[in-house]
Structures are given as structure tokens and as C-alpha cells.
Amino acid sequence: MNSGPIAEQSSQQVLYRILDANLDRAREGLRILEEWCRFGLNDGTLTEMLKHFRQTLGGWHSDAMRQCRDTPGDPGTGLSHPQEEQRDSLQTVVQVNCCRVQEALRVLEEYGKLHSAEMASGAKQMRYQLYTLESQLLGHSLRQQLAKARTYLVTSPSERLVAIVESALKGGVDIVQYREKSADDEIRLKLATQLKQLCHQYNSLFIVNDRVDIAVAVGADGVHLGQQDMPMDAARRILGPMPIVGRSTTNPAEMRRAIDEGADYIGVGPVYATPTKPGKAAAGYGYVRYAVEQAPMPWFAIGGIDLTNVAAVRDAGAPGVAIVRAIMQADEPTQVTREFNQYFS
């Protein structure tokens, strides 16, 4: 005879437990994002916005919900996944917690319809704002890292590719571009995945040369396009707004094109003739000095740069350099990378 009221009471407890758990989850995730905005980005506006979100959720979190909490009896507290046990970069921490908050807000939106129209509507609007914020946070993080970069390794095919790249990362290289023109896609995907994991382990950026599809498949930080590659707006439609897109340039006209299409960074060169760009005449220091005056975005001098001439390239005004053979063919890539970094410290 009492089954109806008992069932009703049980349903209410279940609802409150769901709301309680997801309010906690969303608030915890927001606090992690808030700390990144405060200490990582030094952005008071974003910090205040996330704090406001957190306080709004706190206003929905009633004592009645907390009293229904049963942490010892919750089977979810013992569940885990290997991906939850480690993070490979600050970017990953931000991305994971954006997803965590969005998922919790979706739960609050749906179950909130049984509890409070205000909660359901508020959670929906907050979730949409988080989608936009995620792009802003991750894009800002990548571009902030790009702005600080000084040494950029462009790979060439090698049986020791992964080992050489890790050695360069140990030496402090800021960006690694995976450049491969002839290998099968299966091999490219495998190597790109390994290299991305290594770069993020050492808190460096990972870029894929030319292949937008591979960049998307492995979750690269960006793609580098040559003059004959697809238009940048097409690449961004595939990549989305967050990843970095760079462009090679060899003269003022190509630089103007890169500026007009909104490249995040450019390569400037070749400063010296190089076998990686057969048929390309050296642009020399004149184009480097032109970039000093005209390039509004981060840029890297490239082409035949090694430890015998990097000082002259720096003195011509280059804020950073992209290196191929001097690191890829070095006996001690870690030491060579450290020596390059010393010129820009």
C-alpha cells in the first residue's frame, strides 16, 4: 500500500544524488579552468567569468541534495580509466576539464527539468558558453606557447626519427614539425601519433607538414602549409578554430598573402640555399630584415641554418629559427639543440 510514496521518495533521492554529483563535478572542473585563466593566462576577465559560473552552480546546490549523498555506496567512485590517470600537457588538462564541465552541465540540464526550470535553462546556456570558451582557452594557450617559441625542428626521414626528436626535445626545442613526403599513410599516422605524445610530454608544440587530415587524425597542435598547399581558410574549416596554421614564405608577396589569410606564424627563407628546398634561390638576410619590419605574427628564419651561421641570422633580427639537418644529422641532437637555444635565451 505504501509502494507509491516509497517509490516517489526513492526517485527524489535518486534525482538529488544525480544533481549533487554533477554540480560537484562541474564546479570542480570550473575551478581547474579558473586557475588556468588566473595563473596561466593572467586573464582577469575570464577568471571572473568562470568564478561567476562556479558561484551560480553553488546557488543551485541545496542542502537537500547534499543530504542525499552516499559516497561509500556510490559504485562510480571506484571506477577509473588509464587516460584519467595521467595528463601529457597543460593543454590536455584544460581540454579534459572543459569536456568534464560540458558533460556535467548536460546532465544538469536534462535532470534539472525534473527539479527546476531555472536550473535546466541556466545549465543549457552555460554549456553553450563553455563551448565558445573552450576554443578561446585552447587557442589562446597554443598561440601563447607559439609566441614564446624560438627553436623549431623540421624533421626529415630517418630510421632513428623518434629517438632524434626525443633528443631534441630533451635539449629544449620548442616546436617539432613532422615532415614526410613519401611514406605510406599508415606509417605517417603511427609516427605522427608517437611524435605528438613525445612533444606534449616535453610541453612542446607538434605540427604536421602539409597533411591537414593527418593533423586532425592525431590531434596535432597545428599544420604547416607550403605555397602550393590548400588555401588557409579551407584548412581552418577542416581543423577548426583552435589549431595553429603556419605558412612558408620566400618573398614579400608571399608574406602579404600569409598576413591577409591570417597565418598564425610564417617561415622566412630560405636564408641560405638548402637541399630541402631544391630549386629555391636563397632569400638571404634582406628578406629576414624585411620580416623584422613587416611581419606582425611570430616567424622563424629557415634554410641552411646551423651553428656556424645562427648568430648572423639572429643578429639580422630573426626572433627564432627553424632547423632541419643541423639537428636531424647531429651526433648529439640534445647538445646541438641546447646550443641553438643559447643564442635566443
Largest sheet: 8 strands, parallel, barrel
Rg result: 25 Å
Helix content: 55-70%
User: Average pLDDT across residues?
Assistant: 91
- The SS-based structural class is alpha/beta
Shape: elongated
What portion of residues belong to β-strands? 5-15%
Region (Thiamine-phosphate synthase): 130-345
Pfam family, one: TMP-TENI
Binding site for Mg(2+): 210, 229
Domain Thiamine phosphate synthase/TenI: 152-327
Structure summarized in a few sentences:
This protein has 345 residues and is an alpha/beta fold. Helices cover 57% and strands 10% of the residues. Strands 1-2-3-4-5-6-7-8 form an 8-stranded parallel beta barrel, surrounded by 8 helices.
Q: Could you name the key traits of this structure?
A:
345 residues, alpha/beta, eight-stranded parallel barrel, 14 helices, 57% helix, elongated, metal-binding, Thiamine-phosphate synthase, thiamine-phosphate diphosphorylase activity, ThiamineP_synth_TenI
